[in-house]
Each structure stands twice: as structure tokens, then as C-alpha cells.
Amino acid sequence: MSVLPLSVRFALWGTAALQGVCSPQDAVEAAHQDVDDVAGDPASQLASWRDFGETALLVALPRPGDAAGMPRAGFAEIGAAAAAGECVFLAGFGGLLVPHLSRFGPIGDEGTLATWTAYEAEPVPRHELESLSLGELDRELTVAVYDSSAALERVEGRPWSSEPRGLAERRLAPRDLDLPSGVSGRALRLLLSAARAAVIVDEGLRLAASGPTLDLFSSGRRESGLRDLQRTTGRVLAGATNLAVMELADWRPA
Predict the structure, then answer these.
(1) 74-107 pLDDT tens trace
(2) What would the mean pLDDT of 133-149 be, rounded to a whole number?
(3) What is the DSSP letter of 177?
(4) 113 phi and psi angles, rounded to 5 deg
(5) Most CB atoms within 10 A, among 3, 55, 113, 240?
(6) pTM
(7) CA–CA separation, 58 vs 65, rounded Å?
(8) Which of 49, 43, 42 lies closest to 18 in space, CA to CA?
(9) Residue 109, class by beta-carbon neighbours within 10 Å (0-12 exposed, 13-18 middle, 19+ buried)?
(10) Which candidate, 51, 50, 60, 44, places its Cα nearest to that of 16?
């Protein structure tokens, strides 16, 4: 699977489609390169939004109990996005698309299905999105990684062990860089840095879930530290993606 969440890729390629750079179907295919089948007809949704005059498709990466970056929506809508851990949304017209990834097919020949479901959500004032800053997001990620690393080392958490780091680099396949042209190098670097950190943290949490390797108190502190960092990497990754989207939509200078 890609190191970039599906909604991140779809926000970038979907914006390219809204800008007329490619067709909605081409955008869906480009964003779903590591997915075997797509349901919910996101191409038709993109085409409808383009016809309504929408110019940008934004992304949020919420978690249960943390709806940061989400537009205002009902409990069920936010819950669906938080359960998926990702969604795309519109600033002007309003609305959400939430993907659900599932496996299908016989054992040994399974594929991945992405099913997109549309939900209602309120529009997001453009000035709120334009207040994002690459410099501030970069500093937030740098400080969070440094502070979390120091805290985890104190309990022998070793969050940056070779196994999670190696996984992140293996998942950063060349296709991850097959993104629409027009994204500044600075935004792309921050986006990929946050994505790498997110993969490493997720793998650290997976390893922690397999059983405590320290005493229960230290293992609990390690997991808490990793979850704090997970929230930060999600916010930074979504923010960097949305800044890249705004560049593609020519909302602000690159």
C-alpha cells in the first residue's frame, strides 16, 4: 500500500480534475493506483462538483475523539470519517466523501476495494484554510518528533527503530510521487515528511498492540506518546496536502 493515504492522493488529483487538468475518471484512476476496484462512483461526484464551479478538494485525517480539520457536520458524518481515518471535503459547496477500504476475493488472490460514501457537511470559510502556514506546520512536526522521540527514549520506546523506518521507505514507492504538477517542492517535502512519520508511528503502534515489551507502565507511556505524535502527523499531513491543493487551485501563491 502507498505511504500516502487514499484521501490525500484523491484530494490532489481531484483538485486537478476540478481545475480541468484531467478528467474526473482519470483523476480517480491516478489516485487509486494501489486499489483493485472502486465503488460509489467518485468520478461522477467530481464531475458534479466541477459543474457547480468548485475549484478545490480538501482533505481531513480525523481519528475517533479527534475531529481536527473536519468541516462542521453531524455526529454520524464525523463518526464515519473518524472511523475511516480520512475523508475529502469541499470548502464552497459543502459535502464529504469518505472511503472505506475492504478486501475481496478468495484467499491467496485477494484485492482491495475502495467504497466512497457521500455525506452532508457545511461549507468551510476560505479564510480559515488560507490561514495555514507551511512554516508553522513544519515547525509543529519537527518539535513533535523531537519531543516524542526524547520522551519515548526515556522509557526505552525506540520509536524510530529500523523495522518501522524500513517499512516507511519501502512503502514510499515511485508511484507516490506521481502527483499532479503544480505542487511546490516545499509543500511536497513537508507532505512526504509527515507521511513517513505517520507510517513509522502507525507501525510502532501496531508493534505495541502485539504485546508489551516493557513493564506495563512504560508500555502505556510509550503508547500514549505514539498516539500524541500520531495526532500531530495527521494534522500536518492534512495541512500540507491542503496547502498543496490551494496551490493547484491557485488560491494563494506557491
Answers:
(1) 999 999 999 999 999 999 889 999 999 999 888 8
(2) 88
(3) G
(4) -110, 130
(5) 240
(6) 0.86
(7) 21
(8) 49
(9) exposed
(10) 50
Cα angle 2-30-100, degrees, rounded to a multiple of 5? 60
Report the C-alpha gap between 231 and 61 in whole angstroms: 9
Query: What pLDDT, in 10s, does the model give residues 19-34?
Result: 999 999 999 999 999 8
CA atoms within 13 A on the CB side of 118: 12
Contacts of 102 (CB under 8 A, 6+ apart): 112, 113, 115
Cell of 232: 500531530
Alpha helices for the chain (secondary structure H): 6-18, 24-31, 42-51, 75-84, 126-130, 134-154, 162-171, 185-209, 216-248
Distance CA 239, CA 131 (A): 10
Q: Show the cell assigned to 200.
A: 513509522
d(CA 69, CA 88): 11
The three three-digit cell numbers of residue 190, written as one number: 513537508
